[in-house]
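Q: How would the structure tokens look for this protein?
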Amino acid sequence: MAANNFGTSLVIGGTGMLASATCWLAARSERTIVVARHASNFASGNQRSLAVDADWADPSFPVLVGQAIEQTGPIEKALLWLHDPVAIIPRILPLIENAQTVLVLGSRQRQPEILAGKAHITIVRLGSIQTDSGRRWLTHDEISNGAIAALQDKQSRIIGDHVPQ
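A: Here is the predicted structure in token form.
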């Protein structure tokens, strides 16, 4: 296991395609808050993880995340995959204002305007890859590797070689 490089990390929506990135971040964090609909299934058995079973569409979502942060202390790193970032980012931005944050956006998701000028937010945009037989979507490993790279170098990026307009 890697040494703990980070204090508390927060992952929202990272139990599916970002599961490898979530595990990578958790292995390097003293404590990790994992927020997802079935977070307790993902984080079971990990003593340094705090699972928060929550759906972002629930109005109490930011309250649940805030309560978890109160238990663990300020967030140093955050990895976010949100189905509706325009709706949820304004509600959770105060909770991650001092965290180096990676926001993963789908190929057609709008970047929330509230993020303009926020140097601590890194955007990872998902694209697709050209193959001999046409375009294909990214694999979970490609997506997680891109998120990990952004957590390491704090540089926004596109994963893949094409993002539809």
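The first strand starts at residue 6 and ends at 12.

Residues 140-153 form the longest helix (14 residues).

Upvote if useful.
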